[in-house]
Design brief:
283 residues, Vta1/callose synthase N-terminal domain-containing protein, Vta1-like, Serine Threonine Protein Phosphatase 5, Tetratricopeptide repeat, flat, Vta1/CALS_N_sf, coiled coil, mainly alpha, protein transport
């Protein structure tokens, strides 16, 4: 029955770590853990105790934040936070920092991406987020395994243009909102690779958000160098940090329009275009 608790314990731990710095994200982490726990056909006493405590905390948090909770806006906030942790991990990884701290950041981002499933009726993620979640989970396992074996982890794969991205080279900096993550024990046997993704996984903003950047969708097979990702896991595109920032600004614009805040929407879109303009010029 200990395996049951392992399904929700990491999510609840993230919630506890973020209670003070990011209470809203902690709220949705806890909500995701409760929903996942309630799906179990049989629940051990430990799981029931953990779920009971989580639900009590949710009720108290909901009463405290009742005027602040807005699911549509909160989804964007949770996604933005997950992307920030992912980008920090990816930059550190590609900058040559492949220790346990980087593995922990990848692992945390994979959990935060999974938390986003609660915002979809079918529990699905957008294709780009799904790919990042798989990549983060795989990269965390790769780096953790290398560290525990006392060797250096292989370099991460490159993108579909076969370009190295060592120029990113920015080590992740500590943040007051960044969780301290404890990795689970490495499995004895490598898990089977996930199923292949759709022919093309977009790295740009979601459908319906026009950022002014030309579309460059392609279905060619990625050229993978350095560490080889398993089937179904695609390395993030070049300039992943810039793309994530543009996504965040574009989504903030959509959220602002939902509240008829035109000025904020215009400002957010201008920031997204300022980021994407130089990238489009390189194409």
């Amino acid at each position: 029955m200990a395996d049951q608790l392992k399904l929700i314990a990491p999510i609840l731990k993230r919630a506890q770590e973020l209670d003070a710095a990011k209470p809203k994200i902690a709220y949705y982490c806890r909500m995701h853990a409760v929903r996942e726990g309630l799906k179990l056909d049989y629940r051990s006493a430990e799981v029931n105790e953990a779920l009971s405590d989580a639900m009590e905390r949710l009720e108290r948090a909901k009463a405290k934040m009742k005027d602040e909770l807005n699911e549509e806006h909160d989804e964007l906030e949770c996604e933005s936070f997950a992307l920030q942790i992912f980008v920090k991990a990816d930059r550190a990884d590609r900058g040559g920092s492949r220790g346990m701290n980087t593995a922990k950041m990848f692992y945390a981002s994979s959990i935060f991406f999974n938390v986003l499933r609660q915002f979809d009726a079918d529990g699905k993620l957008d294709a780009d987020i799904e790919n990042k979640q798989r990549y983060a989970e795989w990269r965390a396992a790769e780096i953790t395994k290398a560290c525990r074996e006392g060797r250096n982890a292989t370099a991460p794969p490159v993108d579909d243009e076969g370009e190295e991205r060592s120029e990113i080279g920015v080590e992740a900096e500590a943040s007051s909102a960044e969780p301290e993550v404890e990795l689970p024990p490495a499995p004895r046997h490598q898990p089977p690779p996930p199923p292949p993704p759709p022919p093309h996984v977009a790295s740009g903003p979601p459908a319906g958000v026009n950022t002014g950047a030309p579309s460059k969708a392609t279905s060619k097979t990625p050229v993978v160098r350095g560490g080889r990702a398993p089937p179904g896991v695609t390395p993030p595109k070049i300039d992943v940090g810039s793309i994530a920032d543009a996504q965040r600004h574009a989504k903030n614009a959509v959220s602002a329009l939902g509240f008829d805040d035109v000025n904020t929407a215009v400002e957010a879109l201008e920031r997204a275009l300022n980021i994407l303009g130089p990238l489009a010029a390189k194409k």
